[in-house]
Amino acid sequence: MTIVSDASSLGSLALIDYLWLLEALYGTVGIAEVVARELATAKGGRVQAVIAFDWVEVQPPTEAAIATVLQQGKQLDLCETHTLALAFQLRADAVLLNERRSRQVAQTLKIPAIGVFGIAIAAKQQSLIPSVRRIMDALVEQAGFRVSNPLYQQILKFADEI
Fold first, then answer.
1. What pLDDT sits at residue 1?
2. Which residues are registered as beta bridge partners of 3?
């Protein structure tokens, strides 16, 4: 299965020591060169170390793929644009994104988008972790992740934890 990720998702999972879930679920994760540069210059060694894993593959998206993403008319940052372009180029099975605008562009490009909460749910479904709540709480407390209470409750309900 081919998955491409943005920097914030990888960084968030690294900060809470759950980055290993991506390798367990997908084997390899593709990232664009600009994402690798952002991770390499991030504050904190855990986030910088992401690019050293042999299951993280750095690849440049083509100009044609970047142009396809830019044609969608959404205002995305450079990393989001290149992440979506690489996912489009590779015909990825999924793209790991958390921002609403970039997920909307992924949908337009017919690339399934998953967020870090979706990763937690998939990990629980495959018995890799016992609790989605534990990961969500760690993301909020340790990685500064923001989630509305209704969404938090909805995810816990979906994960059969309430």
1. 84
2. 94
Buried/exposed 55-82: b ≥16 CB within 10 Å, e otherwise: ebeebebeeebbebbeebebebeebbbb
Long-range contact set of residues 33-40: C-beta below 8 Å, sequence gap at least 24: 33/58, 33/59, 33/60, 33/82, 34/78, 34/79, 34/82, 35/5, 35/6, 35/7, 35/10, 35/79, 35/82, 35/83, 38/7, 38/79, 39/7, 39/10, 39/11
Residue 44: per-residue pLDDT: 82
Distances (CA, A) of 144 to 81, 124, 138, 159: 23, 22, 9, 22
Give yes or no for a contact between 16 and 45, defined as CB atoms under 8 angstroms apart. no
Q: In whole angstroms, how far apart are CA 126 and each of 103, 123, 137, 144? A: 24, 5, 20, 26
Low pLDDT (below 70) residues in the chain: none
